[in-house]
Structures are given as C-alpha cells and as structure tokens.
Amino acid sequence: MDNSEYGKTSMSNTTPNTLRYRIILPALILGGALLLYGLLVGTQPELTHSKSQRQPTTIRATTVITQPHTLRVNAQGTARATTETSLIAQVPGEVIWVSPSLRAGGHFNQGETLLKVDTRDLSVQHQKAQASVVRARAELTYASSELTRLKALMAKEMVSDSALAQAERAQAVASAATLNAEADLDQAERNLERATMVAPFNGRVKSEYIDVGQFLQPGEVVADIYNSDSMEVRIPLPDSQLAYLNSEIMLAGFLINNESSAVTLWASFGGARQEWQGRLVRTDGEIQAKSRMLNVIVSVEETVNKNGVALPAGLFLNALIEGNTLNDAVLLPRSAIRNDSQVLVVDDDQTLHFRDVEILRFEEDQAVITAGLRPGETVCVSPLQYVVEGMPVSVLE
C-alpha cells in the first residue's frame, strides 16, 4: 500500500466525537480546579495580629539597708619581746652555781636567783672597807675633839692662830677620809650583792654563754633574755590598707588619746589553733625602703591565752585589725556587683536598671558601698548572664 492510501485510512478513523472529547475534558478539569481554588481562598480563616509580650525573668533581690560598719584589715606579722636585754657580769669571780632556768628556752620569774659567783675575795674587800671606815671615823672623832679644845683655848688667848688653823685642817682631812671609807664600804657591799645575779623580770632565756667553773670578768655577757609578760607584733602594711586604720596613728605615729584598735592574733601552734588579743599602739618611724610598707606595732599584754599557751617570740601570726567605722555603709553580696562598679536596681514597675555606685572595698564575699544607693531600694543579687536595660523581672521573695 502506498502512502496516499495510508493517509486516507487515518483520517477516516478520527471522528468528530473523538475530537470533542479531547477538547472538552481538559477544559472541565481546569474549570473544576479553578472552582476548588476559589472555594479554598474564600473560606480561609482570617488572621489576627497581636503584640508579643516579654515574659519577666525571676530574680533574687535584697533591700538596701544603711548601717554602721567597722573596717577590718587582714595582715601577718612576727611576735617579738617588747623588752630584750643581756645579763652582764658586774664583778669578777668564778661561777659556782647556775640556775637550771638559765638555759636557752628556760623560764624564770622576777627576783629569781639565776647565777652565783664565788664571794671570798669580795668578802675580804668588804672587811677591809669596814676597817677603813672604823679607822677614818676614829680619826674624825679625834680631830673634831681636838679642834673643839683649841677653840676653847683660843678664847682665852692661850693658843696661836696657826695651831687652830692646823686643827681645822686636820678635822677637814679626817672628814674627807671618812666619806671616802664609807663610799668604799658601800661599793664593797654592792659588789657582794652583785655576786648573786637575779632576774629583773618574768621572762625567758634566748641564749646563755656561761657554765659552772667559768671565771667572769666585769662586762662579760652571761645570757640574752627577754620579758615574757609583754610582747609585740610588727606588721607590715601597704598604703592601701593604712587608709582603713585610725587616722591619728597615721599622722602622729602613735595614739594620743589611747583609743587603740583591737587586734585578734592567731596561729597554728602545737597542732592547734591558738589565739591572742592585742592592741594597735603605734607605727614605725620610717617606711621600709625595699617593700615600701610601713610597720604597725601591736602590743600584747596578756601573753598567755585562755588555753594557757604563752605567746613565744618569733611565732608568725595572722592578724585581724579593727579600723575605722563607717556610719552609713551598704553591704551587698559580690554577686550583686556588675561591670566592677554597677548594680542592678529594681524599679517600682518591676524593671531592671543599671546604677553606678562607689565601692570602698571588697571583704571576702561582700562589697562595702559608700554612695549610689538609698535605703529601701531593691537590688538584684542573682548572677544574671544577659541583662538589658529596662528588662522586666519578677522578684522572688
């Protein structure tokens, strides 16, 4: 079959009904889709717009209260004796007895005998001095009586002026000799007393340099001792800490009105914490050249604490010194401080606002504020991570 015959056959198969279905059916489908879209758009719910509200953040807060507050300074220092001296031999002689207390670290009481020197040579000197006094007094008695006799004869013109003058001279020489003999006797008695060395105060021995059988010379050091009834602690402080103490002691170097500040001292001693009480009394006369610090002196009069432990010289101590008292201070936790010198104040409308304050110092877990807050205000103490000015909050009671 040729091509012309094939074309005729195809056209004869495409009827008018077939063409009608191919055109009408897509049109019906498109119209139905448009109708459905119109229904959906016409019946959709209307959207309503509303403002979003920020939820308040729950915080912890405290009410500002002004109150007196005593500043305290923490420091360290070393205890030492207020009075330290050396026992020095005043008379020569052999040491015949030494007290068991006269050893390094030994305790002794005031008036206690610490050492004895052989007194035999000193006793001989004392006896000679006594004999000289007896002889001098006898010579003085004779010269005085002779002068009296010559004066009586002179009244009767029975003696010459030269004889009377000689008698007066003899009486004066005898009087001087008597005074000299009595002085020698007094010296001999003191030497006998000095042969026995006694403790000048209650104290302890730092070091000793003698023993029995040693021959002492005048001026020789026997031992170094210190008074254990009165101790002091020398505490170096920087200028920043000195500002918190009594200004009087800073200006004059000591307390004129005797209003000394209380100081608590403590240390680990003998396996336990021991405490002593002292008073701040003065400062050193100069600032240390290397450290640029000034030493303050704490006096400890009660060197034996309530546990019966005596404060030993050389012990390193912690000290808590009471300083100036602020009349209207505000104390807040460290968590309330933001940006080094700001706090968050809760307003009456329960919103947060930044406030600049003056912080005098930090004490352990609290800040001492001197300006910037009024009594009755509410301050946030919660450590918030993100804060916006005017942020709404809910205060947790």
Description:
The protein is of the alpha+beta class and 397 residues long. The protein folds into 4 domains: 3-38; 58-67 and 327-396, conserved putative lor/sdh protein from methanococcus maripaludis s2 fold, CATH 2.40.420.20; 73-81 and 229-325, Elongation Factor Tu (Ef-tu), domain 3 (Beta Barrel); 90-225, no CATH class. Helix content is 30%, strand content 36%. It has 6 helices and 21 strands. The protein has helices at residues 3-13, 16-43, 120-155, 161-194, 239-242, 247-252; strands at residues 57-63, 66-81, 84-88, 93-98, 107-108, 113-117, 196-198, 203-208, 215-216, 221-227, 231-237, 261-269, 272-283, 294-300, 316-333, 342-346, 352-356, 358-363, 366-371, 378-380, 393-396. It has a 6-stranded antiparallel barrel. Strands 17-16-20-1-21 form a 5-stranded mixed β-sheet, with no helix packed on it. Helix 3 (120-155) runs antiparallel to helix 4 (161-194). The protein is rod-shaped and about 200 Å long.
Structural class by secondary-structure content: alpha+beta
Assembly status? single chain
Order of helices and strands: HHEEEEEEHHEEEEEHHEEEEEEEEEE
The level of helicity is 25-40%
Low-pLDDT runs of 5+ residues are 1-12
Count of runs of 4 or more consecutive helical residues: 6
As a whole number of angstroms, the C-alpha radius of gyration is 53 Å
How can the largest sheet be summarized?
6 strands, antiparallel, barrel
